[in-house]
Amino acid sequence: MFRLNKYLTKLLIFSLCLSTVPVILLGSIFYNRATNSIQEKVNEGNVHILELTRLRVEQVLQTVDRSLERLADSSSVIESLDTYITPTKFQLFGELTQAMYRVQTFDVGVQDVHLINLQKGWIINNSGFYSFDEINYKERFNQYVNMTDSKFWTSEQSGLTKDNRSSSNRVISLVKKIPANSDNPSAMLIAEISSRELSNLISKNNSLGEVIIFDRTNHILAMQNENFSGQNSDIESLYNQLSVSKLLPGNLVTSLNGNEVGIVHQQSTYNQWGYLSIIPLEEIYKESRKTGWIVLVSCLLLLLLSILISWLVSKKLYMPIRRLQESFRMSSDPMNASRNELADKQVNEFDMINKSISHMQTLQNQMSQQINGQVKQLQELFVLKLLQGELKQTEIKEKLPILMSAPPYQLDWMVVFALQIDTLEGSRFKERDRELLLFAINNMINDIIPYKQRLLPITIHKYQVTIVYTNHHSAEQFKEFTYAMVEKIKLEIGRYLGIPISIGISRPYKDIKDAPHAYDESLKALKNRPFAGQNTILYYDLQQTGKIELGHFPEETEKALIQAIKYADADNIDVLLDRFLDEITHYSTTYSEYQVSLVRFFVDVTRLIQDSGAAFHSVFENDKPSFEELLELKTKSEVQAWFKHQMIQPLLPLFEERRSNKFQNISREIIRMVQEEYDTDLTLEICASRLNYHSSYISRVLKNELGVNFSEYLSQYRLNVAKELLEEGSMKISAIAEKLRYHNPQNFIRYFRKMVGITPGKYREMYANETDSHAE
Questions:
Q1: Residue 117 is part of which domain span?
Q2: Which SUPFAM superfamilies does the entry mention (predicted)?
């Protein structure tokens, strides 16, 4: 027995002190430095995110500012300042609304633009034309007029035309007086932006910290996390304290709702808005605690390792003393030693060694007997090594008698076939029975093929593999024998187990050392199951030479399929996807080409997501498809279902929404072109070429959005312009027809009479008579 005495105790204590004290000191220093580093990095990251947020917001606001400046300087706005809009001012009204629409671009998020004529008492916006008597915002207008700045940003609970008071989103307005720097402006331009647009500009990647934007009256305009809104009053109170104390921008620590938080704040010099980042210190402490646990576990492992080393070193140093001590004890107390020997049934150390050696010899004999009784296991191991190319030529010659069940221990021809279960669907078996089924098939093959013409059948992973050989047949006779055996195996398995299988057969070889190549060929033959289907026999040599190349990658079908995905055309997607998979299966000459075609289509669909500008994780969330998963699929139906459910269906909502927005933008551009260029030879093809779309596509968009085609809308607009020109009474009918691009005035007169019911001359007389009667 190994006993612990004073000398060994001293060795252990000294070794432990040398090893444990540095570990504890090093762990404490590393933990403190890591904690401080984490807090510094989090603060630096939040300062950077806050700065980027401010620059992004100010860039958008300045874009709106410049657009409003251009609108204020436009001729239509200047002309409208001294004009009261009437139905006869249709063209001026159209120019104003078009100019205001151009300010409302998608990228800046302007939801409405208001032109307010303070002297004439009217307002124009997206909802139309109003007089001051129809609205309840005169007090707000007076407040804006009394502001000292000629241009300023402000925020309200609701817009001028939309009551937003029940919503948590505020309306942000850019107010510009016209003319600028005037104590008594005659008009104002107001551009309104929802605070939700500002929320979209705030980075969502900041996991530690909440970014909040305040206006110059210390109201919350936008924040990173809407679920944080339950603390708005406390946050505004905190920001008011910061504003009153006039602290310089930077970092500070304070308390919010009883929780310790870090504050990073900045003040915008552009519009005096405030930018605040609130960092819960508890989150930083969590990261520090994780680091602390890692340091603690590392230190404990080092301590355990040092204790073990100390114990082993101490034991080694103490071993000579122990031997002397045991010698002295045994020699000084022979009677006690005799009693211990009788109790343990032991005599002396040499007898114990002799008994141990005898016991090992006995075990060796038993193992030899077990090995002799387990030749089958050895054969299975040798076959496995042979197929995997782990046996050298000399080893093969030595072990061939063990591999072959009967002499002569040589062969003239050899072939390898690999069997795989296609599917268990529709059978009486479950997926968990697959390994047992392979074991049963292995036993069936062991009985079907004569033992003198095959090595021991084995199972490798999901395959059953057999080496068939002969030593007296010709190559053709051997092929016929092999094919007959494989057909019989397929028939018997279908009869008794009722499951579909596929068998890949290699080319015949004349040397057993080529077994690894033959095994590889049998697996390659199995890979061509997508071309041949299930429950089939695949010959490697026929696949290599017997198939004719039919074509290349079906680019036209893929292009049509990608276009259907872009247009969210669910009806055509299934048809085109089925056709596409049929074509690549038909055109591919090898399984590798088939895989390359699938991966190419996978990459093209992935590029479609990138080209749309959408984030990959926002489309697929956590279930991201990968081409490794795609290449594991076996049949066309599995591939088609995978592409449909994993790749295409998650994309359809994205492109459906984008198509709707695109239709609205296209229809607006067409309306603008018609209203600005109605007196030119404007055609659908010209508009389509300017917008870089096909004319038939533009025609469908207008039909969906306006309910009429391009020519109908253009003719109706020209008819309205003709009415205005006839009402003015200063232009001849032939000149009007020429202005509206009618090459023959009679064609204009016939169309006008068809649409209005009277000729242009009658219309002018009727309007003049009505005007005279009103004047009297």
A1: 51-282
A2: Homeodomain-like
Alpha-carbon distance of 451 to 376, in angstroms, equals 13
547's torsion region: left (phi>0), alpha (psi -120 to 50) or beta? Answer: beta
Q: How confident is the model at residue 197 (pLDDT cuts 50, 70, 90)?
A: confident
- Is 489 among the domain residues? yes
- Among the candidates 264, 282, 300, a domain finishes at 282
Provide the CATH number for the domain around residue 149: 3.30.450.20
What pLDDT does 360 receive?
A: 59
Look at residue 681 in the predicted model and tell me its pLDDT: 84
Residue with tokens 């490697």: 540
Which percentage of the chain shows pLDDT scores above 90?
Answer: 3
Last residue of a domain, one of 519, 545, 571: 545
Neighbours of 748 (CB within 10 A): 23
168-172, 285-289, 335-339, 622-626: segment of lowest average pLDDT: 335-339
d(CA 586, CA 434) in angstroms, rounded, equals 31
- Domain match, 224 and 79 both: yes
Where helices occur in 567-624 by DSSP H, the ranges are 570-587, 591-612, 616-620
The upper half-sphere exposure of residue 82, i.e. CA atoms within 13 Å in the direction of its Cβ, equals 3
Residue 272 and residue 410 in one domain? no
Within a 10 A sphere around the Cβ of 430, how many other Cβ atoms? Answer: 8
The DSSP secondary-structure symbol of 150 reads S
Total length of the chain: 776
